[in-house]
Specification:
Layout: H1 3-19, E1 26-32, E2 39-42, H2 53-59, E3 64-70, H3 83-97, E4 104-108, H4 110-121, E5 128-132, H5 148-164, H6 167-179, H7 185-196, H8 200-212, E6 226-231, H9 241-251, E7 259-263, H10 270-273, H11 275-286
Length: about 290
């Protein structure tokens, strides 16, 4: 990182620290030209902000980018309390403290869900949204009529199961899951390392937060133009592309003007599996 970028990162951190009373819910790396339009990139569950390295190279020269890694993930210290709710509040404070005018917010998976929450609760702070394979109600993808209490019950069961595994079972489960989410073997190993460096309780609690909430009605409050990039090929045994497209559209039906596109080959980590496809869609969206 250049001296100017280092100074920018330190300045951003100091500005954020002055507004955040609670322990930091994320670390931010700042790169790019200060005069360019701001972009905030949020990784998913147990991921490092480094998952966006290719995206940063693509977009963060002419524009200023703020790349998050959430607390408790990829070796960062965990915090007390609900991660998503705390991160949302602190990110809103960070945007205000640093006078980021209508930033583009790009979020993957759990990071996409966090971006949706921020845009729904603070619509005036968000310029555009790019949601990479995330849904307003994860628990409802197979059960669209699931109730709020049923979501909470399912989320609690998932949390209990995640925390009940011994270390060997946990690592084997992570590897098996990542192989359904990422095509490249090297990328799988990188993501596996981030997961193994993550705090188990934080990961389980964040997963429960994600599964226990339903934003299908709340997204109606979002004013930012929104692009959703979905993945379906890993689940081709359960339906075709058109069926998954309809399922995504259904979850975002209350979000006016949303554009949903489905990747044909990329698994869940679209930015790693087919970055060219993702960049092409984002380029068109940002014009």
């Amino acid at each position: 990182m250049s001296f100017a970028r280092t100074v920018a990162a330190i300045t951003a951190s100091l500005l954020f620290a002055s507004t955040a009373i609670a322990a930091p819910a994320f670390k931010i790396d700042v790169t790019g030209n200060a005069t360019g339009a701001p972009m905030i990139l949020i990784p998913g569950l147990a991921s490092s902000g480094a998952v966006w390295d290719g995206t940063v190279q693509r977009y963060c020269g002419a524009r200023r980018c703020h790349v998050l890694t959430l607390a408790g993930f990829a070796g960062l210290p965990a915090i007390d309390g609900p991660l998503l709710a705390t991160a949302e509040q602190q990110l809103s404070e960070y945007i205000a403290a640093n006078k980021l005018a209508q930033p583009v917010i790009v979020g993957h998976s759990l990071g996409g869900f966090l971006a949706l929450k921020l845009a729904a609760d603070h619509p005036e702070q968000v310029g555009r949204l790019v949601i990479v394979d995330s849904l307003p109600a994860m628990a409802a993808i197979q059960m669209p009529s699931i109730t709020g209490p049923q979501m909470k019950e399912m989320a609690a069961a998932v949390r209990t199961r995640m925390l009940s595994r011994d270390t060997a079972a946990q690592q084997a489960g992570q590897l098996q899951t990542l192989r359904t989410m990422i095509t490249g073997a090297d990328d799988v190993q990188r993501a596996l390392a981030w997961g193994q460096q993550s705090d188990r309780t934080t990961v389980a609690n964040a997963m429960a937060e994600l599964m226990g909430e339903d934003l299908r009605q709340e997204v109606s409050r979002i004013r930012a133009p929104t692009l959703v990039l979905g993945s379906w090929i890993a689940y081709k045994n359960f339906g075709n592309k058109e069926q998954f497209q309809q399922a995504y559209q259904g979850q975002y039906s209350k979000l006016a003007g949303v554009k949903v596109e489905m990747a044909d080959t990329a698994l869940h980590f679209i930015m790693l599996d087919d970055p060219s496809w993702m960049y092409d869609r984002i380029d068109q969206f940002l014009k």
